[in-house]
Design goal:
It is a single chain. By secondary structure, this protein is of the alpha+beta class. About 50% of the residues lie in helices and about 20% in strands. The protein folds into two domains: about 1-80, SH3 type barrels (Roll); about 90-205, no CATH class. A six-stranded antiparallel sheet has the order 4-3-2-1-5-6. Strand 2 and strand 3 (about 45-50) form a beta hairpin. Helix 2 runs parallel beside helix 7 (about 165-205), helix 3 packs antiparallel against helix 5 (about 135-145) and helix 3 (about 110-125) packs parallel to helix 7.
Length: about 210
């Protein structure tokens, strides 16, 4: 509650005002261009609307604990506050969020999807019963959850920042999530593809 009291004045100044360019910066690195927003500082959340990929306005909300800043016409108003000693200081969180934003924009682990597809599809053709075949995709998915972008990958794009522990941590944390997501989608896609192949082979053999 103390965090919300400290930021209440700032939030009241920002709330319910229409601006031409508003961007919400979340702690996980996502950046969302807003159509409108309203802070509910006493309840610890904000409502906002944005245009989705289909050019339709979508309404949703975010917990204030997940918000780093609001950028209005190029001016950043930081919402994040370090309330306890074990939390990241503002300067540290700034570098972490910046790294996560870069990772969202430039890191695309396509190989994770391709590998997951191979594992998911290939395991279904092993000479085992149905349930046992699922062990390999599950083990692969559990193992890949620990994979993250390498320091050499980060160095190629951020030669100076690679020496910053907070920046590297932020970049790898987002990269790890993207690898896991792509791997999971690949595995599921591979299992689905194997089902199509098995069905095709079954009917072609029956003929």
């Amino acid at each position: 509650m103390l965090k919300y009291l400290i930021t209440s004045l700032l939030l009241l100044c920002l709330s319910s005002v229409a601006f031409s360019q508003i961007q919400l910066n979340l702690l996980d690195g996502r950046q969302i261009k807003l159509e409108s927003y309203v802070f509910h500082s006493d309840q610890g959340y904000m409502d906002y609307s944005y245009m989705n990929k289909k050019d339709k306005v979508k309404n949703t909300y975010a917990e204030l604990d997940d918000v780093y800043s609001i950028n209005i016409n190029g001016k950043d108003s930081v919402i994040y506050k370090q309330m306890f000693e074990e939390e990241y200081a503002l300067d540290e969180m700034n570098r972490i969020v910046l790294a996560r934003q870069y990772a969202h924009q430039e890191y695309n682990p396509w190989w994770a999807y391709a590998t997951g597809m191979i594992v998911g599809c290939g395991s279904m053709f092993l000479p085992m019963n149905g349930m046992t075949k699922l062990v390999f995709p599950l083990v692969y998915t559990a193992g890949i959850a620990f994979a993250s972008p390498t320091n050499s990958f980060i160095r190629k794009r951020h030669e100076i920042e690679v020496n910053d522990e907070m920046f590297v941590y932020g970049y790898k944390s987002t990269g790890r999530k993207k690898i896991f997501k792509n791997s999971t989608l690949g595995v599921l896609g591979g299992i689905f593809a194997s089902g199509i192949i098995w069905t095709t082979l079954y009917f072609s053999t029956a003929e």
